[in-house]
Amino acid sequence: MPVEGRDLSSRQTQDVGKDRRLGNLSTPKSVQRLQRALHAKAKAEPGFRFYALYDKIYREDILAHAYAQCRSNKGAPGVDRQDFADVEAYGRERWLGELALALREETYRPEPIRRVFIPKANGKLRPLGISTLRDRVCMTAAMLVLEPIFEADLPSEQYAYRPGRSAQQAVVEVEETLFRSHPDVVDADLSDYFGSIPHAELLKSVARRIVDRRVLHLIKQWLECPVEESDKRGRKIRTTEAKDSRCGIPQGSPISPLLANLYMRRFVLAWEKLGLGRSLGSRIVNYADDLVILCRRGKAEEAQRRMREIMGKLKLTVNEEKTRICKIPEEEFDFLGYTFGRMYSMRTGQARIGYRPSKKSIRRMVKEIHALTAEAMAWQETTALVGKLNRMLRGWANYFQVGSVRRAYRALDSYTTMRLRRWLRNKHKMRCSGYRYYPDSYLYETLRLVRLSRLGCDVAWVKA
């Protein structure tokens, strides 16, 4: 992906904008004009505070575009079990009109959040909050209005959930900083970052720019939403843990990424205000709750100590078991799915500092391929299975497209063909090894299986 400019306005001055998190969903020109105006004002006057924004959230074009964005994400229903088919049957304009009226008359109240748990790579479970469709549309509408304002304030060290910025750019920045004689790295890990953000301090960060009390009240309601989950017997249990503890933002809601970035901004600004970037020769690279501090030789211990102090003042907890100091090139560290350290050229054998897909990322992909091609999945049509494999492989390659990827591509190619041959043999009740009947030419040319090691050689593979 090409590295973007640091200024949001360059993207929004075009006639047809595209939200990079939502594929090719075009932003209406009227919404773009509002976002350009808000961003330009915030950029030109860093101390300016916005007093009248609430009426923009329930504007017809804002709500309509927010609904289109939510629909493109195809999210699961919330506690009310209402989905997009229900809304379309009821009447989209009528449904949006009722939501606009509730916002205008200030009778809108968010529903509880449905909590589900998704497995993490380490075997643990990550809590995910699913808001109702009505609440998601309202949050997305607020995002359309608020994001251009706060985007003007976010520092260059932050890469997550920002228009025109990506994890790949954060990875490239880390590699370039290592190359610029910053070999000591503080690989920091925060314990439950989203769940430990204090509401009072977060709302202060919002109120620094937003004075409209109705907007602040909306955000406070979303932060204090009850949570509904099922116990082991399947009974519904509602808790008010966020309101009681006065901390935490629900992962999975549309407004959470902006709020998470806004609070992490406090750490980045405190680091620079204390002059630690200059005195320690350090550079921060942050993506959501993933954080590395790259320092000049011998400065990492001091950087780690100061990082702990600042995080403590922000009421955030550093995970001491996972936080460590890594000295490059003698050691390696993982960041955003990549491993950084000493690499060797496959052509010349020469050593250099570089990065490649981590073993954990490759193992996770292998596990998904294994599950998709299991013997129990032999009921599927061959073309349907290959289509699923191709989407999975392309998605993985679209993320792991920078750094030294050739060896990982070849390993996944080899594993995918082996698993697909075994799946075909099981499907057709064959006892042979499968290679005789299903050679590479059959898999790649007849079935059109994606070959990662050939991507980019004959097609525009990012769009393939």
What does this structure look like?
It contains 19 helices and 13 strands. It is an alpha+beta fold and 464 residues long. Strands 4-3-6-7 form a four-stranded mixed beta sheet, with no helix packed on it. A four-stranded antiparallel beta sheet has the order 8-9-5-10, with helices on both faces. The protein has a three-stranded antiparallel beta sheet with strand order 11-12-13. Strand 3 (113-119) and strand 4 form a beta hairpin. The longest helix has 22 residues, at 406-427. It is globular. Residues 1-24 and 457-464 have low confidence and may be disordered.
Question: How many H/I helices?
Answer: 19
Span of the ends, CA to CA? 15 Å
Largest β-sheet summary: 4 strands, mixed
- State mean pLDDT (0 to 100 scale): 88
Work out the number of β strands: 13
Low-confidence stretches: 1-24, 457-464
Strand order of the largest sheet: 4-3-6-7
The shape, in one word, is globular
Query: Strand percentage, roughly?
Result: 5-15%
Radius of gyration, Cα only, in angstroms? 24 Å
Fraction of residues in H or I helices: 40-55%
Quickly give the structural class.
alpha+beta
